[in-house]
Structures are given as structure tokens and as C-alpha cells.
Specification:
Layout lengths: L4 H20 L7 E3 L4 E3 L8 E3 L7 H12 L11 H4 L46 H5 L1 H4 L9 H9 L4 H9 L5 H12 L8 H6 L9 H11 L22 E2 L15 H4 L8 E2 L21 H9 L19 H12 L10
Antiparallel strand pairs: 1-2, 2-3, 4-5
Helix pairs in contact: 2-7, 2-8, 10-13, 12-13
The chain binds heme C (HEC) (2 copies).
């Protein structure tokens, strides 16, 4: 089955019906709104409309090409791994593993974050080393333990030899195949992977008071209050990204002999040692195991981790401290996190 048919059909329609849709204020997924200087993607309930970079406007042709590339295993050296292998949309955009597995069964050191809603991050990767989706998409193709192509030039030559790609690039970009165009197409497709409209969103932003059960409602109170979670995973008045787009040290993996220093590898600033990007928590019930190293197996374990005050180390965030939650509060937090699963996942 073609998982994205719905999304694309809506996108194609949107070019004809944009004005009508916006006039009606209807929350349609993947509707492109033309703004003064550019475009926005109309977001589902609970997410802000997504700004499209001016230098990579979205078109149905580009999105269709990006989608095709995202699912094409031939983008890897031995035709075994596609973006979707590690970012499976049915698993919330991750791969359900602690750390990812690339060509020839090779394992990396970090877990695959979801591509769904990744377009909202200011920077990409756990350590923020890529400035944009466009900048990110080229990396895995030539990463020896991911898709393993010897060079971008080789990847381009391979695409040129595959039936249909020349025409698709021509239609999307009016030119021949380049790696930059491929990355731009993939990024455009990723900007259609917006997922909101969870029970939490319907309760918080949709006026459906019964959308959350009593335990999840209590969890929301703990999340925003005693637990201090919303300090880093914020909930806004009109929408919630559950990320401050910032980096923090919770001590994850810092008790290893040779810990991953995260953001420090990018900035070389002492304060960034062991700091990682705050993940958005949408669909988090689908993306176990958790944290950048996949070391926490379930949401109960994550809540226990926070309750104990993270893992002590010399760079621990000052916001992280023992919480002394009751067992009911812990269970409520887990129920709340489960209420962030969107009903639109099956559409992708
Ligand atoms: C072998 C598994 C694997 C493959 C294949 C792969 N990725 Fe990833 N992806 C990862 C891992 C692991 C990370 C996190 C790496 C890090 O933070 O250092 C990641 C990070 C990302 C992010 C950043 C998300 C965030 O929250 O910061 C995006 C976007 C992404 N990948 C898209 C893609 C695209 C597009 C492709 C195909 C061109 C792709 N990935 C191929 C494993 C994979
Ligand atoms: C100081 C900022 C901060 C606070 C406070 C905070 N978080 Fe986090 N959260 C993060 C960061 C950063 C990570 C990723 C850490 C890593 O992998 O090293 C994370 C990871 C998570 C994850 C794993 C997500 C995934 O995809 O792997 C969950 C679930 C989570 N937090 C829930 C909570 C809950 C519940 C609370 C409150 C009890 C909370 N957070 C408080 C910053 C914070």
C-alpha cells in the first residue's frame, strides 16, 4: 500500500483550493498556504503552521520526488537500506531500535529520531550539527555505516541509471540530477510529515474536554507543574512542539567510560558536554526505546530516570533534580505521554 497517497492527494488539491481552504479555516494536512513572501504548510491541530524556507518552495512534483527517494533502497550501496528503513513512518518515524542498523548490519552509536515533525527543529540531529533538513538529507547517503555510498557523485550516477528519475528531477527542478536537488526534494517531502491531532491536542486546543482520561489529565498537571517537564518540553497557548529547540545534559550515558559528548562535539564549549537536543514528544509511545542512546526501554523507565534526578555528572542541567513523585503521579505522567499519539499516523 502506498502510505502517503492521502497526504499527496491533499497536497495536489491544495494548489487548486488553497484560498477556499484558508477561507474556511479548515485544518487540512499538507495544505500549502501562500503568504506574502513565501509559503506555509497548514498544520494539523496542536501544531503551528510550518514556515517553508524561501529558497526551497514546495511543489507537488518536488514532494512526489522526495517521497520516492525517501523510500528507495537503491540510494544505498547494496540496495538494502532507505531513509524509511531507519525512519519508518508506521513506527512514528523511528526504527524501534536502541541504535540504528545500516548496510551490512552495521550499528551506529545513536538512536534514530523521528522524521515526523522534524521540520519544526531549528537544527537537525541529536547534537544539532546540521542546520536544516536540506543539509541533513545528504549525510546518510554517504555515511559508511548508514547507506554507504562512496561519494555523492556515485549516488548521482546511480540515480541517473534508474528508470524515471531523470524525468522526475526535470519536472521538479527543471534540470538534471544533482545531490543538492535530491536533498531539497527529500526535505520538501519531510515538510509534509506533520502529525498533531492527538487526544492531548483535542483536549487542549480542540475544546474536547473528554478527549483525555482523568489519569492523563492529572499527568498533564504533573508535566507542567511538579515534574518541571514543560520547562524543556513546552506547551504553548495555541500549539505545542514539546521542544525548546535547545540542548541539555540529563546525564544520559555519562556513566560510560567513553561517553558521547553530544553538543560539545559541535561547539567545543565546556558547558555543552553531554548535552543533547530536547526531542519533541509527539507519538513518543510509538518510538521506544528512548534517549539518544536508546538506553531507556519504556516510558515508565524514562519517568523513573527523571524522578531520580537524571544521572549525576559534572555538567548536569540545573533544571534536573530528584522529583519525589508518588507512584500515582508517575503512572499519570506515562498516561499523559501516551495521549500524545496522533490519529493521523496511519495516513502516512
Ligand atoms: C542506518 C539508519 C539511518 C538511515 C538509513 C537514515 N537515517 Fe536519519 N538518522 C539516523 C540516526 C541514528 C540519526 C541520529 C544521528 C545523530 O543525531 O547523530 C538520524 C537523524 C535524522 C534526522 C534528524 C532528526 C532530528 O530530530 O534531529 C533526520 C531529519 C533524518 N535522520 C532523515 C533521514 C533521511 C532523509 C534519510 C535518507 C536520506 C535518513 N535519515 C537515513 C538513522 C538513519
Ligand atoms: C532540562 C530539560 C528537560 C527537562 C526538565 C525534561 N526533559 Fe525530557 N528530554 C530532554 C532532553 C535533552 C532529552 C534527550 C536527552 C538525551 O537523550 O540525552 C529528553 C528526552 C525525553 C524523552 C525521550 C524521548 C525520545 O524520543 O527518546 C522523554 C519521554 C522525556 N524527555 C520526557 C520528559 C518528562 C516526562 C519530563 C518531566 C518529568 C522531562 N522530559 C523533563 C530535556 C528535558
Amino acid at each position: 500500500m502506498n502510505l502517503c497517497t492521502n497526504v499527496l492527494r491533499k497536497l495536489l488539491l491544495s494548489f487548486i483550493f488553497t484560498i477556499l481552504y484558508t477561507a474556511q479555516g479548515e485544518a487540512q494536512q499538507c495544505v500549502i498556504i501562500k503568504t506574502d513572501g513565501g509559503q506555509k504548510v497548514k498544520a494539523p491541530l496542536g501544531l503551528p503552521d510550518l514556515e517553508v524556507p524561501k529558497d526551497n518552495p514546495m511543489t507537488p512534483e518536488k514532494v512526489a520526488l522526495g517521497k520516492r527517494l525517501y523510500f528507495d533502497k537503491r540510494l544505498s550501496l547494496d540496495d538494502t537500506v532507505s531513509c524509511a528503513s531507519c525512519h519508518d513512518l508506521r513506527l512514528g518515524g523511528g526504527d524501534g531500535r536502541a541504535v540504528s542498523t545500516g548496510i551490512k548490519g552495521q550499528k551506529g552509536g545513536r538512536s534514530a529520531p523521528p522524521t515526523i515533525n522534524a521540520a519544526y527543529f531549528n537544527v537537525q540531529f541529536w547534537d544539532g550539527r546540521a542546520p536544516s533538513l536540506e543539509g541533513q538529507a545528504k549525510g546518510p547517503i554517504v555515511n559508511p555505516i548508514e547507506m554507504g555510498m562512496p561519494s555523492h557523485a556515485v549516488a548521482v550516477e546511480k540515480l541517473k541509471g534508474i528508470e524515471g528519475y531523470r524525468k522526475a528531477f526535470q519536472e521538479a527542478f527543471g534540470g538534471d540530477i544533482t545531490i543538492d536537488a535530491a536533498a531539497r526534494a527529500i526535505a520538501s517531502y519531510e515538510r509534509t510529515l506533520l502529525s498533531g491531532n492527538s487526544p492531548f491536542d483535542r483536549y487542549m486546543y480542540g475544546g474536547e474536554k473528554g478527549a483525555l482520561n482523568p489519569m492523563a489529565k492529572m499527568g498533564l498537571v504533573v508535566f507542567s507543574g511538579k515534574g518541571g517537564c514543560a520547562l524543556c518540553h513546552p506547551i504553548g497557548p495555541d500549539s505545542a512542539l514539546f521542544t525548546d529547540n535547545n540542548f541539555h545534559n540529563l546525564g544520559v550515558g555519562m556513566d560510560r567510560p567513553d561517553p558521547d559528548l553530544g553538543r560539545y562535539n559541535v561547539t567545543k564549549q565546556e558547558k555543552d558536554k553531554g548535552a543533547f537536543k530536547t526531542p519533541g514528544l509527539r507519538n513518543v509511545a510509538l518510538t521506544a526505546p528512548y534517549m539518544h542512546d536508546g538506553n531507556e526501554l519504556n516510558l515508565e523507565a524514562v519517568v523513573e530516570f527523571y524522578d531520580k534526578g537524571g544521572k549525576p555528572n559534572s555538567h548536569l542541567s540545573t533544571t534536573i533534580r530528584p522529583l519525589n513523585l508518588t507512584s500515582t503521579e508517575k503512572a499519570a505522567l506515562v498516561d499523559f505521554l501516551k495521549s500524545l499519539t496522533s490519529s493521523d499516523i496511519p495516513e502516512f
